[in-house]
Amino acid sequence: MERPYDVLFLCTGNSARSLLAEAILNREGRGRFRAYSAGSHPKGAPHPYTIDLLASLGYDTGFARSKDWAEFATPHAPHLDFVFTVCDAAAAEPCPVWPGQPVSAHWGVPDPAAATGKESEKRLAFAEAYRMLFNRITAFVSLPIASLDRLALEKRVAEIGTLSPKPENA
How far is CA 159 from each of CA 41, 81, 122, 141, 165, rounded to the nearest angstrom? Predict the structure, then answer.
């Protein structure tokens, strides 16, 4: 096997969605992918509900820290193959120039950290974000990446960003 594909998930705060995506891909990618996450304006720490949800699903949360996307635009950063924005605000911001021109797409997911209401409703927003990201990431890891040309790959990863979450009872 060649080196794993390096994938960066971007969000504004890097406290919820991008961290969830990083955890999911590192598990579901089964060594074929190395996932990272960052934010344009990192919050400084993961949202507590992010950590709670991941821990409840059996993820090791030791990786989770809120980091600036500038970490991934240096000469010593991983060579990125893919960059996905998971929030609309980060998608609209001017991004650093990523060395190597990785394939990129927007996979917008509602911000669970912005959820209001009872604690159960807020936690449900995190579970919904997780479910949406999990569905997209499992579709992504099933792509025959090595056999697709760049244009076809860009089209496929963009289409994945339009997938709706499956209903809970599906």
Answer: 27, 17, 28, 14, 14
Q: What does pLDDT average to over the chain?
A: 90
Q: Which two tokens mark 136?
A: 């997209």
Domain annotation for the chain: domains and CATH numbers: 5-160 (3.40.50.2300)
Place of tokens 């797409």: 105
> Both tokens of residue 75?
């000469």
Residue among 109, 123, 108, 118 nearest 47 (CA):
123
Q: What is the pLDDT of residues 70-114, one digit of tens each?
A: 899 888 899 999 999 998 765 565 666 677 789 999 999 999 999
User: What pLDDT is recorded for position 101?
Assistant: 85
Q: What is the DSSP string of 111-142?
A: -GGG--SSHHHHHHHHHHHHHHHHHHHHHHHT
> In whole angstroms, what is the distance from residue 46 CA to residue 69 CA?
15
